[in-house]
Amino acid sequence: MAVKVEMAFTLIVALAALPHIVSTAAAASAENARDARIFELLDDDQDGSVSMTEFKNNQMLVFYILDHNKDLSLTADETFLQPDAFKSISGTDGKIDTLEFLDIVDSAFKQADTNHDGLLDRQEFVALLNRVRNR
Fold first, then answer.
1. 115 touches 124 (CB < 8 A)
2. Which stretches of 10-135 are assigned E, i.e. beta strand?
3. Which residues, other chains included, contact 91 with Cβ-Cβ below 8 Å and sequence gap of 6+?
4. Domains parsed from the chain with CATH numbers
5. Where in this chain does the record put each EF-hand domain (predicted)?
């Protein structure tokens, strides 16, 4: 389940990643700016928190961006996951379909919502991104 939780955030982080980072200070600054921008994109109503609906709506955008051949499933070459992580999520058919992806999103949101208020604030969101990056 932990691998599934990481997938949704790994995909977001990978899509937003900068190709070259010059120094540690620059990296931290760029990472903070990138995290803030991702949070702003997810926070559709700009109320300072991300609801499950906002989270799911935007996660599907990530899914469709990744789904290069538009067959409504993700293959290993369409994701940024390590082969073993992809295999554990995709199951026997070797693909991640939209329902499997939504299950991942549900799990990721629930784990990130540490105060259980049904919303992700910026701190909860950044904490989850940091956990994903450090794995």
1. yes
2. 49-51, 73-74, 96-97, 119-121
3. 100
4. 2-133 (1.10.238.10)
5. 100-135
Report whether 112 contacts 8 (CB < 8 A).
no
DSSP E strand stretches across 31-93: 49-51, 73-74
Q: What are the structure tokens assigned to 93, written together?
A: 């058919």
Q: Which pTM does this prediction carry?
A: 0.62
100 touches 90 (CB < 8 A): yes
Structure tokens at 57: 């709506």
Is 55 in contact with 109 (CB distance < 8 Å)? yes
pLDDT tens string 39-74: 888 899 999 999 988 988 888 877 887 788 999 999
DSSP-based three-state secondary structure for 124: helix
Cβ within 8 Å of residue 88, ≥6 positions away: 3, 4
